[in-house]
Amino acid sequence: MTPSPMRPGEFIALMAMMIATVAFSIDAMLPGLPHIAEALSPEAPNRAQLVVTAFLAGLGLGTFLAGPLSDSFGRRRVILWGGAIYMGGAVMAMVAQSLEALLLARAVQGLGAAAFRIVSIAIIRDMTSGREMARFMSFVMTVFALTPAVAPLIGAGLIALAGWRAVFGAFVVFALVLSSWMMLRLPEPLPPERRRPFRLGPLGMAAREVVAHPVTRRAIIVQMLAMTTLFTSLSMVQPVFDETFGRGSEFPFWFFGMALVAGCGSFVNGRLVMRLGMVRLVHAALVVQAALSVLAILVWQVGLPPGAQFAVFVIWQAGVFMQAGFTLGNLNALAMAPMGAIAGMAASVTGAVATVGSVALAIPIGQAFAGTPMPAHLGVLGAVLAGLVILRPLRGTLAEAA
């Protein structure tokens, strides 16, 4: 039986939860990093950060396939395949006896999560375009913002009750509920007559079309740099709370507050993007983040009391989260705007390049952590400044109207 069409509110919630699979899979693990380090890597505790970046690496690789497969076989079927892979990776992680096995399992999880993330963006592009898509994505990201707020609290609660391996059981339940919801309530948005054959030749041509478009290409690179700021801060935020400021036990609650405040960014973006345009808002967000990063670096160099340093770090971290609300949805929409005929491939190429590139940049920055947040501040500042340079040619062009 074909599901009846969803109401807009339910559709937004479903798309938000699909995209939130990535945030939930990362943020719920953050309170477990010290426990994982103690159990599987006591001689090199900093390597526990790789639990985050291994997932992101698998996610990036999976995005190359998820979109083209959904263009060929339909959106719903590929999401179900991805859900099965994601749950398999979670089960592998539950029984992993070494850090290497856990990292492999996390990469498998990321591979499956790519279907939720990329195909949901393709579905949104199937039904909207331009500023309307940016506005829709902002409302999706507003709902999505609740996930980073509550995920560390859920993770910390599960760890307190049953240990860090229990978090992976929650991932299985989450994916199962999400897959069932989609199967029961979402009609297939890509009819057979609009599907493209899964052949390497057409896929290669479509990929070249994506990267050849000047607006799409620049939007992908700036998105990669914006994601670098997010992934860098995510990989370091728990160690900074724990080792730098001695507030590891408070981390889930502070993270909840920062993520909740930052979620306002997506909501405000949704209100402003139709009037101001995507490029202007991205530019403004990057400028503000550059200023916050310079301030954080100066505060650390001056050597203020720990309480003041902690306050500035919390503001800076919330700024990174809020910047994501003003940049990622807009840059996604900007990159996808000229790609309506190949939405699945475009979602894959943009997501894959941005994710893999940002992970490659974030890993060495995260591994440079040596007890202070300075590597994160410097890394984020460098990424934001590069993003402003690359975005500059789009200002004052036709893209500004997008």
Task: Summarize the topology.
Layout: H1 8-27, H2 33-40, H3 50-73, H4 75-95, H5 99-127, H6 130-144, H7 146-162, H8 166-185, H9 200-212, H10 214-244, H11 251-276, H12 278-302, H13 306-336, H14 343-367, H15 374-391
Helix pairs in contact: 1-5, 1-6, 1-7, 1-8, 3-4, 3-5, 3-14, 4-5, 4-8, 5-14, 6-11, 6-13, 7-11, 9-14, 10-13, 10-14, 10-15, 11-12, 11-13, 12-13, 12-15
Distance between the termini: 39 Å
CATH architecture assignment: Up-down Bundle
Average pLDDT, rounded to a whole number, is 86
Radius of gyration: 20 Å
Q: In total, how many beta strands?
A: 0
Structural class comes to mainly alpha
The major sheet is characterized as: none
Instruction: Specify the number of helices.
Output: 15
Number of domains: 1
Q: Would you write up a description of this structure?
A:
This protein has 402 residues and is an all-alpha fold. It has one domain: Up-down Bundle (Growth Hormone, Chain: A). Helix content is 80%, strand content 0%. It has 15 helices and no strands. Helix 3 packs antiparallel against helix 14, helix 7 packs antiparallel against helix 11 and helix 10 runs antiparallel to helix 13. It is globular.
Features:
Growth Hormone, Chain: A; mainly alpha; 15 helices; 402 residues; globular
